[in-house]
Amino acid sequence: MIQARLRKHFPPSAESAAFTLDVDLGTSAGVTVLFGPSGSGKTLTLDCIAGFVRPDQGRILIDDALLFDAATGVHLPPQSRNCGYVFQNYALFPHMSLRENLAFASERLARLERHRRVSEMLERFRLSEVAGRRPNELSGGQKQRGSIARALLAAPKLILLDEPARGLDARLRAELYAVLRQVRAEFSTPILLVTHDLEECFELAEWMVVLHEGKLEQAGPPAKILEHPESVEVARMLGLYNLLAAEVRALDPSNNSSKLRVGDHDLTGPYLPGRLLGDRVTLYVRPEQLTAVPRDGKIGANQVPVSLDRVADLPQSVRLEFTGGITVTMTKAEFDRGRHHRDWVVEFPRDAIRVL
Amino acid sequence: MEIDWFPLWLSLRVAVLSTLMAVACGMALAYVLANGRFRGREALDAALTLPLVLPPTVLGYYLLVVLGRESALGRLYESIFGGPLVFSWQAAVVAAFLHSAPLLIKYIRAALESVDHSYERAARTLGAGEWRLFWRVTMPLAQRSILAATALAFARSLGDFGVTIMVAGNIPGRTQTIAVAIYDAVEAGNGALARLLVIIISAIALTILWLANRYGPRQTPA
Lengths: 356, 222
Description:
The structure holds two protein chains of two kinds. By secondary structure, chain A is α+β, with helices and mostly antiparallel strands.
């Protein structure tokens, strides 16, 4: 279990604008992913937990160990925090062989244990054959596994990974995910990973924390965040389609309905608790929940006339991009029926409409 | 021509001793400057650089004041070793030390700071204390630069003239180093001896520089 309440302020400097990190995260998941664009404070959060950076305020707990507490002045050095850290460049010591690198990490273990634990770890991560090599003689995948094995040898309470897949090709990425799943299966050490890659979140995360400009925007299981993004920022970061500016025109709680004006069209949606008439909101509908048909005459309720801008072929389906920023996905067979039409109508099912 | 080799041997002995002292002090001070987080760090750096820019006579004058027979340090030295420090060959060691140490501190600081921080951070997360981190990670990664800097410091301490003549004087057979001997030979009109000594010291300096470049880091730290 990790509990970190962190606040750190950086005044503006010649190179950068002012930045404030202000997050409160708690997780007991096996793999937690900090997700956000660059400059959102992900790595800073990791560095605060590892003890490289001292927050101005807050408190960091791993299980029942207090690592940092601004109120009582507790600030353990990285050496005493028991947090393994896997660096983006792996940081295997270049002047030591892989075995020596692991031995360096084993020096906290009992003297008689060390050799056995190092060999066992090399074995587990399929590195025994290259144990005598220096890091510059290892392949990318070997360095990756070596650096994870080294971090695990010190028997940490938590493993921190900083953008481990950045700059890796697809094959190495898949290898990394496999290794991390192996770590999950064979060790009980929880993992906290930083990434700006959405695919990685869904590949690995049991719990996802979305950061934006130093603030925690949303936290939860990835599928749930995708289903219910809580803010426009989160939806944008998730790369979601159909984020449409709208105005609340009518609210009717007794019929559980509302009227929303999008462009020149009125749509009926579910009742919006907590909203007022005239509120400007962002409407969100998932592309697969919309239906589009070629236009033939009149436009029905909850339908919007649009013209087709672009068609993108997906492995299983097609994605149609219409004017007004509306995107619809449908099967190839469905699309083939209307393939030659420019003008379409898109229907917004009442219950698919969400407001952020 | 009867050649007196004493100045050469004295200079080499002085250079070895002063370089050893400079490396020991230099490592400690450079470590403090590179890693310390305290007020006045840059002021300390400036103070340590001062000997590089002061005229040697000024430096020599300071040393005479601080180490002279009337000073506390001078009396302390005399009571321990039974003879005055000034105008002895040991004073030439101090002079050579002051000549080379500031540069060495700058080079070692640059070498320590040029080690990629992720290695040091990694060592810390693996539980290494600062001592083990320094000797097992930082030092081995910086050692080529440090060795090159030490070679340069050695070459430099061979050649001090101004401070040496102020605090150690020019006593043939006792405190006359090679740089002073060359000056003496030119003054006395002994051109042959001056030429020979100049060639020897140039050859030694050139060899050291060549070795430092060859076995040192690819890029010399600025």
